[in-house]
Specification:
Layout: H1 9-27, H2 29-33, H3 40-52, H4 54-58, H5 70-79, H6 87-108, H7 117-129, H8 144-156, H9 165-179, H10 189-199, H11 205-225, H12 239-255, H13 257-267, H14 270-290, H15 297-315, H16 327-341, H17 348-366, H18 384-393, H19 395-398, E1 409-411, E2 416-418
Antiparallel strand pairs: 1-2
Helix pairs in contact: 1-6, 1-7, 3-5, 5-6, 6-7, 6-8, 7-16, 8-9, 8-16, 9-11, 10-11, 12-13, 12-14, 12-16, 12-17, 15-16, 16-17
Amino acid sequence: MSGERPISSRAVRLGVLALCEFAMLLRAPGLVRAPRFYAEEGHFHFAFAFDHGFWETLAYVHTGAGYTNWIANLATACASCVPLELAPAVTTGFALVVQTLPLVIILWGRSLLFRDLPRQLAGCGVVVFAPSVDGEVWLTTLSSQVFFGLIALVILLEDFEAMGPIRRLAYPALLLLGGLSGPYALFLLPVFLLRLIVTRQRALIPACGALVLALAVQLGVVLSLNSVVDPRRFAAPSLQLAATISVHHIGIPLFGEDLTRKLAAGLGEQVFGVAFLVLAPFAFFDFHTRRLRLASPCALLVLAFGIVAAAVSQLALMGAFVGRYAVVPGYALLFCLIDRAALPKRSWSGTVALGLLVVSLAAGVLGYREHPAFACDGAHPSSWSEEVERWRKDPLAARFWKRPVSDSIRICPVGWTMELHRAGPGGQTPSSP
């Protein structure tokens, strides 16, 4: 049971949060100086919001995704209410808030894992510098669903019996919003339910209920779109599949992308799968001797890792379960290392866990600003304000009475565009000639 922290620690927690925010902004300063829309966030979500307005956008479903992404809907709906030049700043701000929430929960929550300042510092370091955090998910509401998966993970580790009334309301609300924004938070529903059944803590009921409600809504969307039977979402089990999962869900979170790919190229991807199978019996023996229960953070994290890794490997579109799909399993793995390394009695497994954690964070720091997604950071191919100015002055766009769709506005990454329908007097969209 977590105890109350002294008032003097508030300044320390605020300082840690400020440093983490600075590090997050430092990763891609171009996204702060010149915010951008990224891929489907602009091409589908904002284009729809620009044409249809705030309220209709809240119910928008991108049929290509097959589920509702409500945080992207909300952010782009708000972005449609400001001048076009400022719109990407709104969505970037929403994404930054979502990425900050896990840090706030770690620092101010009542966690079973992050019980003291050293563990909190390690947890915040993992959140910011984990090598598995693909640059593609950075500061874009399109991938805020990934960080809602992380939010669900840190909430799963909370001591629900030690919560005050604010957390009892806030956590179910966050889980509901996360579940309505994508599948990552929903993948953790089985672990929440298992913890509720085993521990019989009634305080868990609202959290489970929020995820069940979100799941019901998402299933309704999936069934209405008939996307659940899309054969491209099911990967056939194979040794190669297991090896690829081991590379992206275990290797990269532990050793970083560069070292992992060099090892995989030199030794073959199968080496990671074999290493995992060799270490699994030792991990099981360690769990058995410590008699871990579902109230144990590491037991919860191992279950979360296995369920999310299995879910994304089987449900990712066209088998593309790498990159952003491996972020949440990577967090679960590194949090488990924190739990193992922080045991009071040092053992060989605790020493190994501490060493792996140090290697992981070092790899994350060294490769922090090197992802290709940052090459299009608002300065390439041109800044958003320049794109908007070009769009407004384009002769085809100016003759909107005869052509309802403007010349395309270029967005990130390179090659992506979006088309905005310009409304005529009275808010009516002009008709085609």
